[in-house]
Amino acid sequence: MSEIMLIGVLGLVVLAIGIGVGFLLFRKTPTQVPIQSEEVQKLLENAQREYEKIIGIAREEALRTRQEAEEKKKEIEQMLAQKRSELDKREQELEQRLRSVEQALNHREQSLVQKEQVIERRFEALERREEDLYKREKELRDLERHLERIQRDLESRIKEVQELEKEVQRLKDKELLELQRIASMTLEEARAEVLRRAEESARIEAIKIAKKIEDEAREMADLRAKRIITTAVQRLASEIAINYTTTAVELPSNDFKGRIIGREGRNIRTFELLTGVDLIIDDTPDIVTISSFDPLRREIAKEALERLIEDGRIHPARIEEIVNEVKKEIDEKIKKTGEEACMELGLYDINPGLYYYVGKLYYRTSYSQNVLLHSKEVAYIAGLLAEELGLDAKMARRAGLLHDVGKAISHELGGSHTDIGIELCKRYGEPDPVLNAIKAHHNEEPVRYPEVALVCAADALSAARPGARRETLEAYLKRLEKLEQIVKSFKGVANAYAVQAGREVRVLVSPEEMTDEEAYQLSKDIARKIEEELEFPGQIKVVVIRETRHVEYAK
């Protein structure tokens, strides 16, 4: 390639020389004469010889360059062959080293596996020996405890024998004194003493018989009542709704918080003034909290705020317009809720005028319990109990649903919710069992119908269900203190403790001052006094404990 380029360059040089010579020969001027053709021929021959000479030199140069290139190429190929051989030798050496390392590693791995197997066998042997030692130690401990129990039994029996000896001696002394006293009595005094002892013995026997009869009757009644109540309650899948004093509304983004507040707070002030709630806008991302004690206000505020966020136009005039629309629609929603509750319970003949008040119970709470859900629960339980007992289940459901209907407007009108409920039900023509249930479930009048008794029981069951109701800490503590004070007012009570959140009271009495029969009578007296003087949800279990303890210390 380099040879061709060199020849081409030389050809161009010769061509340029020929063109220059021809230009000099044939150019005519006024002072020159034409050149003779012989001279031109000589010049051309000279130029041809020079061209051939130059061509020869170029070819020789190209040949020499080519030979040098081939020699360089051979040297490079020899060097490459030498490098390849060296690389092959290095690769073979590396492969040999790698194989030797792999063999060494395999050998080490086999050695480690063997050592690991030996260690595992030794570990298993140690575990077996440890299990054997543990079993032997456990057997020794069991034997030691057994011996200690035998020793304690022997000591306790010795103490019992000693106590019995002391008791026998005391009885002997008492009988001796009694005989001495009787010996000094007149006939009338002896007759009176005999009658007193007979009366006391008969009274004790009568209490024992009454207790036995009462226990048997209570046991049968408990079994029957538990079966009926269990059957009724297990058929009820109660709905639980939690309504506290706050409601959270999600925002599409945090930018809406500034729009809800408005310039200088005009939007949020207008919203709070129209709805009667407090809007809490804090650092919680994409959340606005609505705070109010009234669930109805919270519902109106929540619906209005969600519509404003969806609409995007938030200013005082739009807020007032949306709030008024929601207030109008919420009344229809309340009425529909009440109608659905009545239809759900199968009460199709209730006056439609009561639908609104029944639905409004959904937005009332009592001790944090939703009043509508509580009323539906009472209706279901009362109806199921009535079906089990063969009574009017529909009337029981009706009375259960409406027993707290006065709470729908009692906070607006003031006064007792039972009186307001009676007026509402009379206005809409409800039957007498419903009116009796409204009054009787708060013991304001006696129960006149068996279905009403079931409503009162269902009301207590719904209120006493775990998690159904809450009361303030102050009221709770006062109720427990009052309970303990009532119990401690009885003679012979050493101490009293209210446990199980006030649903049980444990009474400790002095065994020297009170017999078992008197302790039994005390439990009934305490229960009766608690019912008369204390208001409480559900029931309170009274447990009277009479025991004698003998304590000794081993030194």
Protein architecture, described:
The model is unreliable at about 25-35, about 235-245 and about 465-470 (pLDDT under 50). The protein contains 16 helices and eight strands. It is flat and about 200 Å long. It is mainly alpha-helical and about 550 residues long. It has five domains: about 1-140; about 185-235; about 235-325, Ribosomal Protein S8, Chain: A, domain 1 (2-Layer Sandwich); about 345-470, Hypothetical protein af1432 (Orthogonal Bundle), CATH 1.10.3210; about 475-545, 2-Layer Sandwich (GMP Synthetase, Chain A, domain 3), CATH 3.30.300.30. It is about 70% helix and about 5% strand. The strands form three sheets. Strands 1-3-2 form a three-stranded antiparallel β-sheet, covered by helices on one side. Strand 4 (about 365) and strand 5 (about 370) form a beta hairpin. The longest helix has about 150 residues, at about 35-185. Helix 10 (about 395-400) crosses helix 13, helix 10 (about 395-400) packs across helix 14 (about 450-465) and helix 13 (about 430-440) crosses helix 14.
Main attributes of the structure:
5 domains, 16 helices, three-stranded mixed beta sheet, Ribosomal Protein S8, Chain: A, domain 1, mainly alpha, 555 residues, single chain
List the helices and strands and how they pair.
Elements: H1 2-26, H2 37-183, H3 187-234, E1 246-250, H4 255-261, H5 266-275, E2 278-280, E3 287-291, H6 295-311, H7 316-344, H8 355-360, E4 365-366, E5 369-370, H9 371-389, H10 393-402, H11 410-413, H12 417-427, H13 432-440, H14 450-464, H15 473-488, E6 493-499, E7 504-509, H16 516-533, E8 541-546
Parallel strand pairs: 7-8
Antiparallel strand pairs: 1-3, 2-3, 4-5, 6-7
Helix pairs in contact: 1-2, 3-9, 5-7, 6-7, 9-10, 9-14, 10-13, 10-14, 12-13, 13-14
